[in-house]
Amino acid sequence: MAEVKVFPLCCVVQNYAWGKVGLDSEVARLVLGGDSQALIEEARPYAELWMGAHPKGDALIKDNRISQRTLGQWIADFPGCLGSKVKDTFHGQLPFLFKVLSVNTALSIQAHPNRELAARLHAQFPEHYPDNNHKPEMAIALTQFEGLCGFRPMHEILGFLKNVPEFRALIGNEAAEELQSAVGDPDRTSLALKKCFTRMMNCEKKLFVDQLNMLVKRISEEEAAGRDTSASNGELLLRLHSQYPGDIGCFSIYFLNRIVLQPGEAMFLGANEPHAYLSGDCVECMACSDNTVRAGLTPKYIDVDTLCEMLNYSPAPVSAKIFPCVQDNSDPFVYLYDPPVPDFSVMRIQIPASVRQYTVSALESAGILLVIDGEAAAMSAAALSDMTLKRGSVLFISANESVSLQVTSSTGMTMFRACCLL
């Protein structure tokens, strides 16, 4: 049935321990919205919803008239659905994985390799690095979303080295003074920053546990006395320590920017960018890979040497980490997040309450459409039958196919569409 090119998907949930629990999770609420029969366990974490054809989470096709069971099988049988440019560029594979994340406790401090490093890590340690692809990714906030991202401006790091003696003890005076003297020279700054971060990540366990305990005790006492602990980043330190007691990653807050995205704001994480998501809900899109180099705030495999060697040691302010979206020239309801990689782009489609008819336009790329809010009757010449779209619905749209919506909700609609704009 090759003529069917638009169909609904039933997507895979990942129950990682850091996810929000039960119906506190936006992932769980979207799953229930898309399928009122879904069973949500109130004590279980619902961390990620995977929308795509990744082998660890290949979406099921939600139409038993289609013989292929999963999206991956469908694309393998009909690679033309990707669009000719996408099919040729990415060798007949869907190049992106689209997700929703609901974060309750911090994810690991991590970075993703570029293609060259990914190939090397996969060849050497396939059990830890399962494929040879790079993994740039972009997070778009659905609720207030908090993360660590990239190295802070130098004056902030130097301020912490001055105000947090426990942090300075891990780095050592020599490396701290080297960092101070490198100010104004970008090359020397990068080298000195690398030395300081590597020193911290490799310091003896007894030293960092003792210093962390002293720091937690000091900040707790200052908070109890009603004193301002912001010079030591006190609130975040205590929160991470309560989630991952005795973890070296707690000290990373003195190196990395804390970024708080408001709904609709985004951050793009290119290769070698250190980051950790801390809390909130987001839509995420990435190249189709599962390669992550971790070094703290995690019970998983950590690879400190690789992480310290690969990172981009370029200090930059929080404002430089917020990735802008652009309103589409031809459709005022579309806001495009178009990162500097070929693998993926994301559109936020915001249909106002006054609009009743809307067409999800045809693109030269296959796309996946997720409904966050609102309802509509959906029609497409490339679908087996009309479909009802509502909160939690996920639709696969082949290249060069459009979908007409008759909006039935009184408050308009919010949707996200992942695609590949070559």
Automatic annotation (TrEMBL):
Reactions catalysed: D-mannose 6-phosphate = D-fructose 6-phosphate
Residue span(s) of domain Phosphomannose isomerase type I catalytic: 6-153
Cofactor note (record): Binds 1 zinc ion per subunit.
Active site: R294
InterPro entries per the UniProt record, alphabetical: Man6P_Isoase-1, Mannose-6-P_Isomerase, Pmannose_isomerase-type1_CS, PMI_typeI_C, PMI_typeI_cat, PMI_typeI_hel, RmlC-like_jellyroll, RmlC_Cupin_sf
Sequence ranges assigned to domain Phosphomannose isomerase type I C-terminal in this UniProt record: 336-376
CDD domains xref list: cupin_PMI_type_I_N (cd07011)
Domain Phosphomannose isomerase type I helical insertion: 170-256
Subcellular location: Cytoplasm
Pfam families in UniProt: PMI_typeI_C, PMI_typeI_cat, PMI_typeI_hel
GO biological process: GDP-mannose biosynthetic process; mannose to fructose-6-phosphate catabolic process
Family statement drawn from the similarity comment of this UniProt entry: Belongs to the mannose-6-phosphate isomerase type 1 family.
PANTHER family linked to this entry: MANNOSE-6-PHOSPHATE ISOMERASE
Protein name: Mannose-6-phosphate isomerase
Originating organism: Culter alburnus
